[in-house]
Specification:
- By secondary structure, the protein is an alpha/beta fold.
- It has 2 domains: about 100 residues, 3-Layer(aba) Sandwich (Rossmann fold); about 90 residues, Formyl transferase, N-terminal domain (Rossmann fold), CATH 3.40.50.
- Helices cover about 35% and strands about 25% of the residues.
- The strands form 2 sheets. It has a 7-stranded mixed β-sheet. A two-stranded antiparallel sheet has the order 8-9.
- Helix 4 links the parallel strand 4 and strand 5.
- The longest helix is centred in the C-terminal third of the chain and has 25 residues.
- The chain is globular and about 50 Å long.
Amino acid sequence: MKRLGILLSGRGSNFEAIAESVAAGLVEASIACVISNQPEARGLGLARERHIPAFAIPSKGVDRESYDRTLIARLRDSQVDLICLAGYLRVLSAGFVREFSNRILNIHPSLLPAFPGLDAQRQALEYGVKITGCTVHFVDEYLDAGPLILQAAVPVHDTDTEESLSARILKEEHRIYSQAIRLVLSGNYRIEGRRVIPA
């Protein structure tokens, strides 16, 4: 059975959604470990409640290359097949990405390539778009730029706040992340440029 490694920095809602899909048999994998760069992250507590190995590796004051070497060692020790970023608020080094090439997934709260980086929901509201959404993509060496696996559209209402829009996008994130993990674990896809095409 394939082994997932989850990286998170905060509340861990996408981790919870993935864990529920694993528990229900919708994703045929086990969660080998949950790692956070924030020792107080709620997601670590959620992992421990589920008896999933959970590790805090504090990043404050540590340079990116050194930190990522420590992270790589922990993931190797856990024999992880696929890494899922679930609200992980650090940019991964090029060395980390090369170590796990085409084995790192991320979920982003916009329809990439629109609104990369932080505060995507606020960017969407400020820009005035009528539709935004979320994207699961492979992670490459550039910010929010890897091949796109799945996307889901979410309408933007005239009355939306950043909080209300974020909540609706999050529901779609929880839905499509597990679908994308299932596709990648199956191996039944090919990558052409920035497109991930199911076989």
